[in-house]
Design brief:
Elements: E1 2-3, E2 10-11, E3 14-18, E4 21-25, H1 27-30, E5 34-37, E6 40-41, H2 64-74, H3 79-86, H4 90-97, H5 105-115, H6 125-131, H7 141-149
Helix pairs in contact: 3-4
Bound molecules: zinc ion.
């Protein structure tokens, strides 16, 4: 037997979500929260789960950095010009094209749109356009991996 994380009573405890935080609670405290089954809330809520750090490269197509480089050259853009268009530093573009930098997802989408290329793999266009609000959410590559697996 363990003690309820909310009231300290010793009882049969159930994992529950109370104000977005997971607790082990007794039956009476459970009424104030949402019961969790397999750590998933019965009522869908906006739970921010910690993002597992999976291999970030896996969402990008093979040699995406070279793809960016050749697409940029096709458009007759220098690294400086591309950086300017993206509001980024030239060093960032340089590191990206040389494969030393993994761009954050919002920058990746900007690059894709600007260079008219696809450097993310297996991500449906409609997911990119509809499901994710890139402006308001702090989307990470980890989130995208989760979307991909759905
Ligand atoms: Zn309790």
């Amino acid at each position: 037997m363990v003690e309820c994380e909310l009231c300290g009573k010793t009882a049969n405890l159930t994992p529950a979500l109370v104000e977005d935080t997971k607790f082990l609670v007794c039956p009476s405290c459970l009424q104030h929260g949402t019961k969790l089954i397999d750590d998933v809330a019965l009522v869908p809520q906006t739970i921010k789960k910690p993002v597992k750090h999976e291999e970030p490269w896996s969402v990008f197509v093979d040699k995406f950095n070279l793809k960016v480089k050749s697409a940029r050259e096709k458009l007759n853009l220098t690294q400086e010009e591309l950086a300017k268009k993206l509001n980024e530093k030239v060093s960032l573009i340089h590191n990206l094209e040389s494969g030393h930098f993994i761009p954050p997802i919002n920058l990746t989408i900007k690059i894709e749109n600007l260079l008219k290329i696809n450097i993310l793999q297996e991500v449906e266009e409609d997911i990119k356009n509809k499901t994710i609000d890139f402006k308001s959410s702090e989307l990470t590559i980890g989130d995208l991996i989760k979307l991909k697996k759905k």
